[in-house]
Amino acid sequence: xxxxxxxxxxxxxxxxxxxxxxxxxxxxxxxxxxxxxxxxxxxxxxxxxxxxxxxxxxxxxxxxxxxxxxxxxxxxxxxxxxxxxxxxxxxxxxxxxxxxxxxxxxxxxxxxxxxxxxxxxxxxxxxxxxxxxxxxxxxxxxxxxxxxxxxxxxxxxxxxxxxxxxxxxxxxxxxxxxxxxxxxxxxxxxxxxxxxxxxxxxxxxxxxxxxxxxxxxxxxxxxxxxxxxxxxxxxxxxxxxxxxxxxxxxxxxxxxxxxxxxxxxxxxxxxxxxxxxxxxxxxxxxxxxxxxxxxxxxxxxxxxxxxxxxxxxxxxxxxxxxxxxxxxxxxxxxxxxxxxxxxxxxxxxxx
Amino acid sequence: xxxxxxxxxxxxxxxxxxxxxxxxxxxxxxxxxxxxxxxxxxxxxxxxxxxxxxxxxxxxxxxxxxxxxxxxxxxxxxxxxxxxxxxxxxxxxxxxxxxxxxxxxxxxxxxxxxxxxxxxxxxxxxxxxxxxxxxxxxxxxxxxxxxxxxxxxxxxxxxxxxxxxxxxxxxxxxxxxxxxxxxxxxxxxxxxxxxxxxxxxxxxxxxxxxxxxxxxxxxxxxxxxxxxxxxxxxxxxxxxxxxxxxxxxxxxxxxxxxxxxxxxxxxxxxxxxxxxxxxxxxxxxxxxxxxxxxxxxxxxxxxxxxxxxxxxxxxxxxxxxxxxxxxxxxxxxxxxxxxxxxxxxxxxxxx
Lengths: 351, 351
Prior knowledge:
Helix content of chain A: 25-40%
Structural class of chain A: alpha/beta
Radius of gyration of chain A: 21 Å
Largest interface: A-B, 89 and 89 residues
Strand content of chain A: 5-15%
Number of strands of chain A: 12
Largest sheet of chain A: 7 strands, mixed
Oligomer: homodimer
Strand order of the largest sheet of chain A: 2-8-7-6-5-3-4
Order of helices and strands of chain A: EHHEHEHEEHEEEHHHEEHEEH
Distance between the termini of chain A: 53 Å
């Protein structure tokens, strides 16, 4: 075997997700999952699902799900695009909207998949340095560009931007699509959804993976003006006619209907986050102001990588990024109260 | 709203799937779905699924599913790649393997998504004319190229190629990846799977949508040498870390375990196909020799488009392609015996 075909092979550096350890006794705080189970609506949707219907293709428009999202966020159904998690939605958005020669702009410290999609599709990009306090300077996003992506709140920093700063960027870039990745918005910060009806160039991307406890179901969506959504649909129908399976369409809609439970777990996580943050500050940690379901923390004099390894040995998985500017930090997902008490206790022993 | 962002927009012509009418009383023979429900393994997998586990991301490797596919087809797990239907697998394969400057080759009459993916990724392609009898001439696939895609059996022609002709193409193109799209192989023809261990450049793509009655669940897979599969995984991890949801992983594995039911419905469809074919021939139709779950038929003197419309008025949906060389043909999916008797009866009235 000569592997001569490798001459035509795409060369890529993939994104590396956090580990998914199989063992049961692990406190898993490394992928920003929700510690609480999803809405009981999931069970109900599964019970009502006609498994015989699997023999047919799903609705290519996933109308039941896009309709439920539209109702939940008070937009029209043709302003909603759904995908296989927000990664699918974001990846497809890069492919659809970033075809100019000018670089796409995003912060130097942000969701590292942005540069991976740039590499995947050969899209030039330029990383703009966050300020020293890890906030975003809106003036960095006013020059010539082929598109803009802002995670708000940002990850792994956990810091959110004011809506008027987001609007400033959107307003000053009429010839670029500005993607606001709101994966964590339900835990804090101001959503850019109100901009969608006033600007034709803003796309808000959301996920069911964090606040809806549905990481395993793979549902993400985008909201924008109908022309942006139409363009995304054209790309989708040029890639895969049916991306969301029949059962997931029903499950997604059922989960959205349960807004009471959603509010309960969302607020609980915020409460646990604020408790954990205070505890860590009391221990001498610098804790960035978090509007997310995780904390980004450091402590003068400690080796973050060593703490990461020590926690792992105690079956506590957090995330460490061996990258410039953030290599002294740990990203700790907010779990249950019990889990966070254990984390604090173990950290007190380690540091 | 000025839509200035459209200057950076990708221009695409999407694939148009067959209609998915909502009404219940329709005889739906337009998207090559299986008329029989999926294995009861689906129900069992759903009943055993822990819905609380949705809060966590799925296994990014979908190991339970790739393992089940590997066992079923007697290959190693690292020779299997899974995706959201075979469209996801094929689209990702185009992006991964077709990066040379030379055109990718496929027949002029074949699955029309191939040219759509070419357009999506800016991959040059060249369509090779089928012979007058709609068979593929292997000599058309020996010139300079950047990759080759052969649907075997081909769609919408329903005709399969001999394995030694497939092997001839694979052997004569060591520096190209040759994709064999076997969406319909369970209904006839010889699989290219035995070539996978002997050639490093052949990728066999399959789907759960046809013979496994699982179009609604979105599962497709590729089998190849581990280097080809590794390259596909790199692309996948550069696009979306988790494409198959937690429940679908379990359902897919459960369906594969039920080989008895699989054999029963597979053979039943072949039997119904052959009965329908004989009936149509008796009515004066030319029926191409089918190794699939559909028939591609024409009749001298009739207007295929008019017959398509007349059938639709009688709630029978078949597929008509308004394209060169095939505009006199209808593609009729094989349904149940009862459905096909009805089709024959209505056709006798119409033509």
